[in-house]
Amino acid sequence: MSVARTSCMNNGWKLQDVIDLQDSGLFYGEYESCEYCHHEQIRFVHILHHPNHPNPIRVGCICAERLTNDSITPKKREQALRKRAERRKRWLKRNWIWSQKGNLYLAFTDRETHEKHCVGIMPREDYYKVWIDEDRGTLQYPTQELAQLKIFEVLERRREHNVSDNNHRPQ
């Protein structure tokens, strides 16, 4: 029997976080099972905590709605992650351009924030470095795809926080 059902706490849970296991590099067949109903292969894991339970539980969207008595927030948070995953998939397929200096770059205007960006990747002998607008990253990435995804992650954090300060510089 699951953690939540064993402890007879079927309400009073609070949504702590929602995560997409695909962001962790997992794929179908590697996903978790819901700790409440045991439904298998949940990609979007809703993490709930309860004041009378020592550990958070990891459940699917429907169980999160039931346990939190909230039919809106869990679904809304999961939908936001689904949209982000689609943006991430499209990001790699965008029309990146090779510059005369041998860098791969992309100039675009964010549809949501209307900010203009010029981002790019500088290939080196055995690694890649990134830049976002005027900020040059310091970390090295082993593949072009990982460098592109780092740019995506930084821009997403900026979008989520709707700021463009030094806390969101590329690394």
* Beta-strand content: 15-25%
Please report the distance between the alpha carbons of the first and last residues: 45 Å
The biggest beta sheet reads:
5 strands, antiparallel
Helix content: 25-40%
Query: Structural class of the secondary structure composition?
Result: alpha+beta
**Low-pLDDT residue intervals, each spanning 5 or more residues:** 163-167
Q: If you average the pLDDT, what whole number results?
A: 89
Q: Shape, please?
A: elongated
- Rg value: 20 Å
User: How do the strands of the widest beta sheet line up side by side?
Assistant: 4-5-6-7-8
Individual helix count = 4
Order of secondary-structure elements: HEEEHHEEEEEH
* Count of β-strands: 8
Description:
This protein has 171 residues and is α+β, with helices and mostly antiparallel strands. The chain is built from four helices and eight strands; from the N terminus they run H-E-E-E-H-H-E-E-E-E-E-H. Helices cover 30% and strands 23% of the residues. The chain has a five-stranded antiparallel beta sheet with strand order 4-5-6-7-8, covered by helices on one side. A three-stranded antiparallel beta sheet has the order 1-2-3, covered by helices on one side. Strand 2 (44-49) and strand 3 (57-59) form a beta hairpin. Helix 3 (73-93) packs across helix 4 (144-161).
Topology:
Blueprint: H1 3-6, E1 14-20, E2 44-49, E3 57-59, H2 61-68, H3 73-93, E4 97-98, E5 104-109, E6 116-123, E7 128-132, E8 135-136, H4 144-161
Helix pairs in contact: 2-3, 3-4
